[in-house]
Specification:
The chain is mostly helical. It has a domain of 109 residues: Globins (Globin-like). The chain is built from ten helices and no strands. Helix 4 packs across helix 6 and helix 4 crosses helix 8. The chain is elongated, with a radius of gyration of 23 Å. The structure holds protoporphyrin IX containing FE. Protoporphyrin IX containing FE binds next to helix 5, helix 6, helix 7 and helix 8.
Length: 176
């Protein structure tokens, strides 16, 4: 009896895989990166600079103090890099599209700092709604942004003016 059961098990294990499309049955959708941008698709939304969550500085002085578009790019990329490497928040970031985040975060910073970009990303409430972010997570992100700005020699008062612009967004990005 034991031998028969073992033989049946062996046969089952060796049975050729059938062609059942389990992804289709379970509704699993494979997302494909755009061959040009390298980004994953997101649900459709209306692009609008108002999605950036703050009005831009007007004079151009802030953009200059952040080193123009090149300096802003260095800071936003560095912020993403620090977040992905930070054990306090890395788990939240790792599950998401870094390529898109690098682009949209740069656009948002560039737009708000008055360096002449348009922001084409989603609004803060809908892009953070499902992340379950806490105030402690936000504090970690702010520390990382301060580090990125410090490393780029952004004057301290300009750092603080930028942080003051972002502060009201905490009500949209902190969800628990
Ligand atoms: C004032 C603070 C914050 C600002 C200005 C900000 C800015 C942004 C921007 C511009 C995007 C891209 C939206 C899009 O893809 O269309 C984004 C997405 C994201 N943010 Fe934030 N963020 C903030 C706080 C946080 C915090 C505290 C966390 C977690 C620690 C976080 C985690 C993420 C993640 C994981 C995404 C990607 C979401 C996705 O791909 O669906 N953010 N954020």
């Amino acid at each position: 009896m034991m031998i028969t059961a073992a033989a049946a098990l062996l046969l089952l294990q060796q049975a050729p895989a059938d062609n059942t499309d389990w992804d289709a049955i379970f509704g699993v959708e494979e997302k494909v990166r755009d061959p040009e941008t390298g980004e994953l698709p997101v649900e459709p939304y209306v692009e609008d600079n108002a999605n950036a969550g703050a009005d831009p500085f007007e004079s151009g002085k802030m953009a200059q103090q952040f080193g123009g578009r090149e300096g802003i790019r260095r800071i936003s990329d560095r912020l993403v890099e620090l977040n992905y490497a930070d054990p306090r928040v890395a788990d939240i970031f790792i599950a998401h599209d870094r390529v898109r985040l690098e682009r949209t975060l740069f656009e948002q910073f560039c737009y708000i700092l008055g360096a002449g970009c348009d922001y084409t990303g989603r609004d803060m409430a809908s892009s953070h709604a499902s992340l379950g972010t806490t105030r402690a997570d936000l504090n970690a992100l702010v520390e990382n942004l301060q580090q990125a700005m410090r490393e780029s020699d952004v004057p301290f008062h300009a750092q603080n003016r930028f942080l003051a612009k972002l502060a009201p967004m905490s009500k949209d990005v902190v969800t628990r």
